[in-house]
Design the sequence.
């Protein structure tokens, strides 16, 4: 493979000189104002993208930023990409001039691949995006709506603690890794929130497998269509057919669940009761219910099609599973690594339970636990699940840091670097929740980045993740209850590595967490 690229580069070198010479004769004023970057090979762009993948791309980009500055220009084929590593420039771009950089980059291959169903994360900045986002924030992420999913959270917590207890008794056995147990729990919870039904394990795992197969295939085998899609869609027709078959498989699983909520609404069972009913596996409210109510005013007031609802449901499940389970694994790993922090958190949990007279930690209880919130915030600062947020794009040419970013350019932000900025944080490599307590260097930090950006695990500005409240509630709820039920100790002969990273759908621990999980009160 390396030889092939070297031969191709050698073949293109004469062409490069001709194109560069032609460009110089024509002035090239716009390109001289682009942020700096490494040398570009015409057609191919930066060979960096060919030679690296996963976490190595991020590391290579950091080296390039160290050489060229906080704004970096890269090319992938004919597509221009700019990355931003400085938190002040990020604030200027995303917050101070939020509307200017609130769009998403367009990909010519989307229509060819049949991926044109809009979602919150992919929609262009405009009325449709506002409608989808407003619906999610008001009908799912609002605290009053989140309380309606309490029975599902309690059921998932009970199953998760049972699985962890069984895993400890079996010495690991066939139970899978701890993070796999977390992933299943988060996915099961999101399935219940999405479709309004607490499904059995087999059904949940079938949906998870179908969803993951499509996501993995799309993120690996389908990337080739971003390069000359009119040609590659013919050369790799088999990949298209495989992807369409995977999407149909997912649709066959989703539609009975969507139709069940549609029928429920027809029978007048869609109204939300004052309190959720614990004795049934059917929830009084779901994300699908809200999608059934949406009407597209700019399209004759029509309802969403089945394919549009499936795209939004897939986004819902994808967006909250790996991100939350990854963050949960990192936080629990840090608590194993730092037993004094875990003990301090457990003391707060015991104190809260004593004051409420309860034998568990509820959603309302976590609001009274500042140290719990500090632990979660420190986990998100030190180990954001994604080292970059979803890419942005300017709707028009925009100036940033003395350079011009052309309309439609893909713009990425190195959020992990901002949370590790030595100018913003004392001892940034340390896991120190106390920094978010009164008197700490992170006291009162604005995680939304509205006032200033010091960390932005959920992004910032107009396109900040709408699931921020959902994710933080889930992390606080599960961290508190996992520490309430178990003491998390280092496994014998296993060192917890909180520095090694690798890229999957998120940035995960290179060496998955191994821990001895001891029920509280046990020897």
Sequence:
């Amino acid at each position: 493979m390396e030889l092939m690229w070297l031969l191709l580069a050698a073949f293109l070198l004469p062409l490069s000189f001709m194109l560069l010479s032609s460009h110089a004769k024509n002035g090239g004023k716009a390109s001289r104002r682009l942020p700096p970057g490494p040398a570009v090979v015409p057609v191919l762009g930066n060979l960096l993208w060919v030679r690296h993948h996963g976490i190595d791309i991020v590391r290579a980009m950091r080296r390039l930023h160290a050489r060229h500055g906080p704004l970096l220009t890269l090319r992938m084929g004919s597509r221009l990409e700019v990355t931003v590593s400085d938190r002040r420039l990020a604030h200027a771009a995303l917050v101070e001039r939020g509307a200017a950089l609130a769009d998403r980059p367009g990909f010519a291959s989307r229509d060819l691949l049949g991926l044109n169903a809009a979602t919150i994360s992919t929609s262009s900045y405009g009325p449709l995006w506002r409608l989808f986002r407003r619906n999610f924030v008001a009908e799912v992420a609002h605290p009053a709506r989140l309380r309606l999913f309490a029975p599902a959270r309690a059921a998932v917590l009970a199953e998760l603690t049972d699985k962890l207890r069984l895993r400890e008794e079996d010495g690991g056995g066939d139970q899978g890794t701890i993070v796999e147990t977390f992933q299943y729990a988060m996915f099961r919870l999101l399935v219940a929130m999405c479709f309004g039904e607490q499904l059995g394990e087999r059904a949940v795992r079938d949906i998870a497998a179908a969803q993951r197969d499509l996501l993995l295939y799309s993120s690996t085998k389908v990337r080739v269509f971003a390069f000359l899609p009119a040609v590659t869609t013919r050369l790799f027709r088999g990949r298209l057919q495989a992807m369409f078959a995977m999407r149909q498989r997912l649709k066959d699983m989703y539609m009975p669940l969507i139709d069940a909520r549609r029928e429920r609404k027809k029978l007048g069972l869609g109204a939300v009761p004052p309190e959720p009913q614990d004795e049934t596996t059917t929830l009084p409210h779901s994300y699908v219910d809200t999608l059934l109510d949406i009407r597209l005013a700019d399209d004759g007031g029509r309802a969403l099609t089945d394919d549009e609802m499936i795209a939004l449901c897939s986004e819902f499940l994808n967006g909250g599973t790996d991100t939350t389970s990854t963050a949960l694994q990192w936080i629990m790993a840090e608590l194993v690594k730092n037993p004094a922090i875990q003990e301090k958190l457990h003391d707060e949990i015991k104190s809260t339970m004593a004051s409420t007279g309860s034998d568990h930690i509820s959603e309302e209880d976590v609001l009274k636990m500042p140290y719990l919130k500090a632990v979660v915030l420190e986990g998100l600062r030190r180990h954001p699940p994604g080292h970059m947020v979803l890419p942005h794009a300017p709707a028009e040419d925009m100036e940033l840091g003395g350079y011009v970013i052309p309309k439609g350019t893909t713009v990425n932000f190195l959020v992990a670097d901002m949370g590790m900025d030595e100018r913003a944080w004392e001892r940034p490599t340390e896991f120190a929740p106390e920094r978010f307590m009164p008197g700490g260097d992170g006291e009162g930090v604005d995680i939304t980045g509205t006032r200033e950006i010091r960390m932005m695990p959920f992004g910032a500005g107009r396109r900040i993740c709408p699931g921020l409240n959902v994710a933080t509630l889930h992390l606080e709820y599960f961290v508190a209850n996992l520490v309430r039920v178990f003491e998390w100790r280092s496994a014998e002969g296993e060192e917890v590595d909180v520095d090694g990273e690798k890229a999957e759908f998120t940035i995960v621990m290179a060496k998955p967490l191994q821990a001895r999980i001891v029920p509280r009160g046990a020897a």
Summary: The first strand starts at residue 71 and ends at 76.
